[in-house]
Design brief:
Helix content is 80%, strand content 0%. It is mostly helical.
């Protein structure tokens, strides 16, 4: 996860939303805890909304499957 953290920090510094969507989704897939996964998915979802990408719909569906609905 350290490599992932380093890549996330770099993407934040570069303000690269597309990379952040991918990296937070990757983080969500790499943990074995639903709450932690949803934490990362929420971040990916917010970046996807900000970027206006179609990824937002998929991320929203993933969050809904885990009972995370705003």
């Amino acid at each position: 996860m350290k490599d992932l953290d380093t890549r996330m920090i770099s993407a934040h510094e570069a303000r690269d939303r597309m990379a952040l969507i991918k990296l937070y989704s990757e983080a969500a897939d790499s943990v074995n805890d639903v709450d932690a996964s949803c934490f990362f998915l929420t971040h990916a979802y917010v970046f996807a909304l900000e970027a206006g990408t179609p990824d937002a719909a998929l991320l929203h569906q993933r969050l809904k499957r885990h009972g995370r609905e705003a």
